[in-house]
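User: I need a structural model of UvrABC system protein C from Echinicola arenosa for a docking pre-check later this week. Nothing fancy, just the predicted structure tokens so I can convert them on my end. Input:
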Amino acid sequence: MLSPSYSPNEYHKLPDVPGVYKYFNGEDDLIYVGKAKSLKKRVASYFMKSAGLNLKTKRMVKEIRRIEFTMVNSEFDALLLENNLIKKSQPKYNILLKDDKTYPYLLVTKEHFPQIYPTRKVIPSRGTYYGPFASVKAMNNVLELIRSLFTIRTCKLDLNPYKIAEQKYKVCLEYHIGNCLGPCEGLQSEDSYLKDIDQAKNILKGNLGIPKAFFKSRMQEAAENLAFEAAQRYKDKLELLEKYQAKSLVANPQITSLDVFSIVTDEKFAFVNYLKIKNGAIHITKTVELKKKLDETEQELLLTAIFRLRDQFQSDSKEIISNIDLEEPIEGLHLVVPKIGDKRKLIELSLKNAMYYKKEKALASGKVKEKKNRILLQLQKDLSLKEIPDHIECFDNSNIQGAYPVASMVCFLDGKPAKKEYRHFHIKTVEGPNDFASMTEIVGRRYSRLLKENKALPKLIVIDGGKGQLSAAVEAMKSLGIYGMVPVIGIAKKLEEIYFPEDSYPLHIDKKSESLRLIQRVRDEAHRFAITFHRDVRSKNSFKTALDQIEGIGPQTTNKLLQHYKSVKKIREASEEEIAEIIGNDKAKKIINFIKQ
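Assistant: Understood. Predicted structure tokens for UvrABC system protein C:
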């Protein structure tokens, strides 16, 4: 059952039983889900032994404002529940498994003369789904095999017995070339058709032995009756099946169903390869990347991958083999780390795939870094800078006829947005619509603070605007004594001209240049950030003004609500009971009546 929520200093109240715990931050967002053999001991470890925690975990603990938990019967149940909650909510401090593709399935429809066709949407009422397949190619290979072995219709007709009896349909080309036996005209009985469907289902389940036995017996029967052409057709189909099985045979056929997992890691990521084995053949192969969020061990990362991949690919195998052992056994599953034999060969094959994925990731990362360096080097060349501009800051103002004047500063590190470094500014010293004075104020405030805190200055400052705004920024820099230490430019919107201080002629960079696109991207991001902030400020102030007109609602009440909910939108979405907990029943009623108007 679900318990009441507790604050972080009430962790000692949690029960000493297996379960799942959930951490929420100040905005009541779920930030972490964990499992525990003992809820009380596990949660206490976050708050009692802070010295032993890494920096990421300490940061998470600082954000926790509320704890919820669910008690379960066993640690295994806790694992299952944790997996479901993480998959549903994607909390920011839980391990991130990067694999958001929608996988293809083969659907055997629930109707007269069922169809078999690929789909990515799972709607259980339509029929039985087989898969998911790790690739479209793997799925098409199975579908092609089935259509080569059996005469399964490919049309979308509604083959209701009444419609067939009324002769509503005519056979198509598929009938004339031998791919269909014409059930639409009643030339094939439904019982005969369903026998093919049953055999196709065996192939989709990976039970190749049953259709092989079926074709072998039909071949022998036809040969005994001297029907040699029919016997040859059955022999061809039997060879097709054996050829298909031989393509995916990787181990001793005596190996039954099992799951193979291998894991390799680096500082930030883990790479897990999964092979689903049935009757000695690989039916699914998949490699995924897991991003470490805290200080997870290889065992924790592997356990996460085991649960998510088995769930995703609907595995019911009781045996798992891996290259590393888990700290504790998984209830109902048998995990082995093989040292020799065919199972060891499977591990080596799986590891080969995981290592290749890791290598490709590293190469791709290197190419991205190379591209970033190329753009920054080009920007350095175009602007004649002494250093590579790997730290860029850009400023923009926003106001409507001087009302609610605000500004923004965005930061790009290595050519990418560093959103934690973004800053908003309320204009404090300027009256009326004066963009130049506002620019002087915010640039002065930003860099006086960096100097005071002894932090690094950027390698390039970009001002959204032409010579006027640029001159205003330069004035602030001169007053701080940093003019000449940091290059500063202005970018005018109309012609995308680049202005330098004390230079009357603008620089025109090629419109197709990657360096100009980077400057435009930085400028557009600063503009977006400023406009969004201005809209929020305007909304809050108009909301405050409107609330002030309600009898009994003063500035303190309004501020209390805004401090708690952070935005006007969240206040509008809150219930009367929730608001009453903050400002009391009478005022809550007045607020709700006002919102509903």
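Before docking, keep this in mind: The chain has 18 helices and 19 strands.
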